[in-house]
Design goal:
Blueprint: H1 4-42, H2 46-56, H3 61-73, H4 77-91, H5 96-108, H6 112-125, H7 130-140, E1 153-156, E2 165-171, E3 174-179, E4 190-191, E5 196-197, E6 200-205, E7 221-222, H8 225-228, E8 233-239, E9 244-254, E10 260-270, E11 273-279, E12 289-294, E13 300-305, E14 315-322, E15 325-326, E16 330-331, E17 342-348, E18 352-357, E19 367-374, E20 377-378, E21 382-383, E22 394-399, E23 405-410, E24 420-425, E25 433-442, E26 453-454, E27 459-464, E28 469-475, E29 481-486, E30 492-497, E31 503-508, E32 520-525
């Protein structure tokens, strides 16, 4: 008779072997996923790396650290913070190499106190990191970046969608911008690195002047057949009275890693369409060149690139057209560039260079800076401050010739690569504002200015036209001078009453931009008083 115990042991051994084999398979899959994820990560294919890491396990702290790094590289800063904190809960401390990155994602999510703490921990291991020191000072004195915010107005454009819209530039009575929105009825090729369609160039007509809520725009349309045929197109810069342009497109060939670099190309408006004329001679399969800005005469070109020999990350470069040949790109140097990313330059009046950086101290993520171009080089970059900059990524600034109106891009609404376009009005008039002037009178409409008489001791009333109420009263002095305080934004008229009871009214225009406020001269004509 066979005892039960004699057959149970082989069964147990079989189960043990099966479990052991299953464990080996699970651990093998885990190791394979992590190893392949590491390869994707090294190749900067962060989405595929993230997918494999998350399939491997969510409980292993080392994998959670890898997940956090992927989210940081994908600009998903809130998710990066979440996985860094899960790792910290298990391990209590971060590897030294992640201290700076963790400080960056905390700054990018507005957690400045924690960001300062981890910048300081980073500095404990790298005491000579001047940029980290400056970031600590900047965040400790963040209030200075809000000082001019009352004079700046920012509005999102109605052209924004649930996809990315960025890098708008004025073009005739339109704006031209990049977007990776899906077009109805089209089979879209997908950019695997961000899991969205490739960027194309669109344009939209400006319908109305800017009010307090900004301009209105017509429906966006694809800008050019030539550019629409590119795998990835934009940003773009116009010059020579908008008859020529330089634009970015994917390389025709892939590099050694199978990824396409970004390259610059020139085009000219001929026979009613844009025709590509030549590539930039320093394009390469091994590095990207992007974000061009060019002088109106087409002789000075700035761009960003990750080419070798830079300070790290993306740097800004300059090339000059001499005898119809572009010079070897020149790195702008340590005043402008850092070991991190500088990108999206904009040349303004050949005197100022706006650009975005996550290396210079700011409010978190990419911030917009400006530097003055001098004979000696470039001035210390100045942070544009709030509300242009936020703790999110803010970049792609372009400004009109008066420095009062422009466009920029930001992911402040949704984060990641879901960028939006914003319109900015600068030097906005704030209230209350003191308006001064002088009241004069002349006898007849046809008389010349020499016949002007100062109206002294005359009552002046500031009237809110929309509310039909007097908001301020004043009296001119012996030389006809007066001043009134305008308490808030509205439509106003000034009513003047002389000492003999005669009165008249004039419209008072309050300039939109504070630099335009000046002394007012009110002249009344007696025979039409």
């Amino acid at each position: 008779m066979i005892k039960p115990g004699n057959i149970l042991l082989p069964l147990l051994l079989h189960v043990a072997v099966t479990v052991a084999h299953g464990q080996q398979t699970v651990f093998g899959l885990f190791r394979n996923n992590v190893s392949l994820g590491d390869k994707y990560y090294r190749d900067k294919d962060y989405l595929n790396a993230l997918k494999l890491y998350r399939e491997a396990t969510r409980r292993n702290p080392d994998v959670q650290l890898r997940v956090a790094r992927c989210y940081y590289s994908l600009k998903e800063y809130t998710q990066a913070v979440f996985y860094y904190e899960r790792y910290l809960k298990e391990k209590r401390s971060l590897p030294w190499s992640d201290m700076y990155s963790y400080a960056e994602v905390q700054a990018a999510t507005g957690n400045y106190k924690t960001a300062i703490e981890y910048y300081q921990k980073h500095l404990a291991n790298k005491q000579d990191d001047a940029l980290a020191m400056r970031k600590v000072w900047r965040l400790s004195n963040i209030q200075y970046l809000y000082e001019d915010s009352a004079h700046i107005s920012v509005h999102p454009l109605s052209l924004n969608t649930g996809y990315g819209e960025l890098c708008a530039v004025p073009y005739r009575n339109r704006i031209v911008f990049m977007s990776n929105r899906k077009e109805p009825g089209l089979v879209e090729k997908v950019n695997a690195s961000i899991n969205a369609p490739f960027y194309k160039i669109y344009s939209a007509r400006v319908l109305s002047g800017g009010g307090k809520d900004g301009h209105q725009y017509d429906k966006a349309m694809l800008f050019s057949k030539e550019l629409a045929s590119k795998l990835n197109a934009g940003p773009i810069a116009f010059y020579d009275k908008e008859k020529k342009m330089v634009f970015v497109a994917s390389a025709r060939e892939t590099g050694n890693s199978g990824r396409r670099s970004l390259q610059l190309f020139f085009a000219e408006w001929k026979n009613g369409e844009w025709t590509e004329t030549m590539p930039f001679p320093y394009n390469s399969r091994h590095h990207s060149i992007s974000d061009p800005t060019i002088s109106e005469d087409g002789k000075v070109l700035y761009f960003s690139s990750d080419m070798g020999g830079g300070l790290g990350g993306k740097d800004l470069y300059k090339s000059t057209l001499v005898d119809d040949t572009w010079t070897q790109p020149q790195n702008l140097g340590e005043t402008v560039n850092t070991p991190y990313d500088e990108a999206f330059p904009f040349l303004h009046q050949n005197r100022t260079l706006y650009f975005a950086s996550n290396g210079h101290p700011g409010m978190g993520g990419l911030d917009i800076f400006e530097t003055t171009i001098t004979a000696e080089g470039y001035s210390e970059p100045r942070n544009a401050g709030s509300p242009i900059n936020t703790s999110y990524d803010d970049f792609g600034m372009v400004v009109d010739s008066l420095d009062t109106h422009g466009y920029f891009s930001s992911n402040r609404k949704n984060g990641g690569y879901n960028d939006d376009l914003y319109e900015v009005e600068m030097d906005i008039q704030t209230y209350p504002v003191n308006i001064a002037g002088v009241v004069k009178m002349k006898e007849h409409a046809w008389s010349d200015s020499s016949a002007l008489v100062l109206l002294s001791h005359t009552r002046v009333y500031l009237i809110d036209k929309l509310r039909n109420t007097t908001v301020y009263e004043s009296t001119t002095d012996g030389k006809g001078n007066f001043s009134v305080i305008v308490p808030y934004f509205s439509e106003y008229i000034i009513r003047v009453v002389t000492d003999d009871g005669k009165e008249s009214v004039v419209v008072l225009e309050i300039p939109k931009h504070q630099r335009q406020v000046s002394a007012h001269e009110i002249v009344f004509v007696k025979d039409t008083f």
